[in-house]
Amino acid sequence: ELIKQYIDYLKSSVLEINTKLANGEYHDVMKFGHNIKGSGGGYGFMELTDLGKALEIAANDENKEECQKYLDLIEKFIQDKN
């Protein structure tokens, strides 16, 4: 049940973070990446931890294309878990 709740949280968050990225709100994108970097492994999703780390770095560099790439990969990860 906790894993399902976590996936649901990610699903809604990715939509919000895509909007933040479109608006150039890199700090929020970086914070999201940092959060999933820290929480993914706790749910057994090491791949998600790696994606979160990469997203955090890309957002820190304000690299919109890289951020979008990692958000797309996170979204695909979520879809694969549903």
Summarize the structure in words.
The protein is mainly alpha-helical and 82 residues long. It is built from four helices and no strands. The protein has helices spanning 2-22, 26-39, 46-60, 64-81. Helix 1 (2-22) runs antiparallel to helix 2 (26-39) and helix 2 (26-39) packs antiparallel against helix 3. The longest helix is centred in the N-terminal third of the chain and has 21 residues, at 2-22. The radius of gyration is 12 Å and the shape is globular. 27% of the residues are buried. The mean pLDDT is 95.
Strand content: under 5%
Choose one word for the global shape.
Answer: globular
**Number of strand elements:** 0
CA distance, first residue to last residue: 13 Å
Please give the count of helices: 4
Query: Helix- and strand-based class?
Result: mainly alpha
Helix content, binned percent: over 70%
Q: Strand-and-helix sequence, N→C?
A: HHHH
| Low-confidence parts | none
Quick structural gist:
By secondary structure, the chain is an all-alpha fold. The protein has helices at 2-22, 26-39, 46-60, 64-81. The protein is 83% helix and 0% strand.
